[in-house]
Design goal:
The structure is a homotetramer.
Chain A (H helix, E strand, L loop, with lengths): L2 H18 L6 H8 L3 H7 L3 H21 L8 H18 L1 H14 L1 H23 L4 H24 L5 H24 L1
Chain A binds a DNA duplex (21 and 21 nucleotides) through helix 3.
Chain lengths: ~190, ~190, ~190, ~190
DNA sequence: AATGAATGAGGTTTCATTCAT
DNA sequence: GATGAATGAAACCTCATTCAT
């Protein structure tokens, strides 16, 4: 098992899945781009599905790990959320291709992948909810988590569409949005 | 061309695409569910792609038509946006299957469909932006349209995941969210 | 059985077979050009093969009938052969489409049609041979029939290729060729 | 790409196309006779059309190459033409199957192949014309090339029909014919 | 006699996976 | 570990023919 060959395959698969989608990406495309033979693929991965899942799971794990930190952060909620959002956007931006697959493709592939997606995305939503619950009542936290997650995904989405969008722009847009969302909440709290 | 047969095929395709995704839905599945022969499919549609596009385009057209009304509505912005969001959710809820395909699958299929998706979703975002621009400055409208569209999609998304979610629940969640979003804006306006 | 509908179908089939070949001509093409419904075709012809054979057999019969006359003509051989060749070219020219099918397509379609072609073309060659045998010894007649038949077919062929070739040109080319062929024979006879 | 497998496929295709025609030969027939799997065919050829064209083009190229030699031969015309005709017949006889496809099937398949055929056959006719032009005036060369090409094709044709015809018989028939054709011309020249 | 919607067998082609070298 | 030719199941699609109206 030469780890380098495996990396080449993962990199190649990542790029192709993002660009062409799971079904339109052929194993033959992956090996061609990785400059290895067709048979080599099956030394490292049991199937096309396996390499796909490996990519997905890695991203999800890393993302969750980075976000879990904010469960134990002791700052005011606006700072916490802003940092969390920044972390989220940085992570997905740095792994654009897999994030694209994860957030925009996984759900539509087939029932098996749909279930996986639901499970994974729920984890993220749940985590966001837990963080918010430290500052707001349960119901408000629930709805805020929906607003914020939807908002961040939409920003990431615009980034995918608009290829010359950069990370800083995304983050500053996100902060503006967060401000708007919390101004309402703030007033309420103060009152 | 018996319109009834065509409808059976469209209905069958819609359900299957939503359930199994585009690629995992075989033409043989569609005709089996519609109770017609394999060849019959090709009397009504040139290809699997064509029936898929017909479904997508129909939903998009109807959705856009219903939302365009709000460009000329003369009420306060909160009422306008709430009505628009309700309309949106109603339409997608009543056409759950196609809406699921449209919002959650289209992007990931292949490059051609990706382009289509970008074009179509941009229309919706643009319309939302135009409505908001009647009440807010351009930049604020832009960011509000991102927040709101992301939020509605996330709600619809939760609805897809959680099968016993109903329309009323979705609408009331949405209204709560809209209130939160606009409380911030309101205060600013007032001040 | 409205003879007119049958004629429309035969005409339409003739043109299409000539232009696109047997396999590339669909029954749906034939009925469309004849302005009748798909089902109507099968009132007049048992199958696509049947209409094809009807066309072929008609041409062949008429051609043979017209050529048979020259078995009993009492002129010098050069006049006889020239008249026969003229008759041949006139007939195929006036029925260009079917003649094209007959002389250039039939052989390549399948084994059944190949056998038919061999049988039909042998009839023609045989007739030419019989006419020549009235003037020349058997072996010479055999070879002359091969030369002449090959020559006429080649002329007709050039006519098919070069769309603005007309009958008069073909006939005069043919006469020139016949002169050349027989000049050699002539000398021999004279000597 | 094992050249051996490709050869097996070409050989198998050649025989089947000649026997059953292009349309009646299924890819499944070709692979069965070549003893390889269905999918193997598509490693070596993009489509059924491609293998067909490869066969056609190879024959045509080889034939033309062998005949081009006679453009620079310095003997009397009768010897030159006889040698050329012998070469032609030898080549087509040794590649009976493809020659059959080329001379008797190509024209009738579809419009694309028809155009190809016209182009290829014109090359041959042109070459024959060029050789003759070295000895005869232009117009006479033109008509002689038509007579001779028609004659040779007819001979080859009889060979296809009459399976126990052999090369020597064909060649000697051809020489007899050529003699007859040129006796006329000869006399003229002499006179 | 005419229609035209429906049929379904059978064709071409794709591509994930295997396996002998 | 690496190769790449070979596999074959299964997909999409075509079109001659049928049949109820």
């Amino acid at each position: 098992m030469k780890i380098e060959t495996k990396k080449k395959l993962l990199q190649s698969a990542k790029e192709l899945f993002a660009k062409k989608g799971y079904y339109e990406t052929k194993v033959s495309d992956i090996v061609e781009r990785a400059n290895v033979a067709q048979g080599t693929f099956y030394i490292y991965f049991k199937s096309k599905e396996e390499i796909f899942l490996e990519l997905i799971k890695t991203l999800h794990q890393e993302l969750l790990q980075k976000l879990e930190v904010y469960l134990n952060v002791e700052t005011d909620y606006q700072t916490t959320i802003k940092s969390l959002v920044k972390e989220f956007l940085t992570e997905v931006y740095n792994n654009k291709e897999i994030a694209e697959i994860f957030f925009s493709q996984l759900f539509g592939l087939n029932q098996e992948f749909k279930q996986l997606y639901i499970k994974k995305i729920s984890d993220i939503q749940q985590l966001l909810f837990e963080v918010l619950k430290k500052y707001f009542p349960e119901e408000k936290s629930r709805i805020l988590s929906t607003i914020i997650l939807g908002f961040i995904r939409q920003i990431f989405f615009n980034c995918l569409i608009n290829k010359n969008f950069n990370l800083d722009q995304m983050v500053s847009k996100a902060e503006e949005g967060i401000d708007i969302i919390f101004q309402g909440v703030n007033r309420e709290v103060i009152t």
